[in-house]
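[step 3/7] fold_predict: job queued, chain A
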Amino acid sequence: MSALLGLALLAAAPAQDVPVAVVQQPVARGERIEQGDLSIETRPEAGARGALRPEQVIGMEAARALSTGTVVRQGDVMKPQLVKRGEPVTAKIVSGSLVITAAGRALGGGAQGDPVRIVVTATNRTLDGIVDGSGTVRISTP
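[step 4/7] structure written:
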């Protein structure tokens, strides 16, 4: 009985508005989202389910094209891609204190810490590594 009373009280409570990030101008897929691309609007809690706050969105990349007035949700953004498919990369092959660098080409894209496969240009050999920075892939040897 008390559970039903509690549910009734929750249903009767007025809906609260929460601040959400809303796209102020169109953002293309893969474009980095900046402060000027967003505005903060308050929306009813039920309509803002899954919406991100502006501080969670700034600095991320759009996973799809975002039109003006879109409430930004988790699936709309992704971590910035530091390595993109087909672009040249620097492979840092690390074994203990020895570091060898080689030019290569990314076979996939990834953000900081993501696994990515590359082809070393000089040897045409495929290697797996971890995105270490912008255009840099770290390959660790046992």
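[step 5/7] annotate
The chain has two helices and nine strands.
Strands lie at 17-23, 38-44, 61-62, 77-78, 88-95, 98-106, 115-120, 125-133, 136-140.
exit 0
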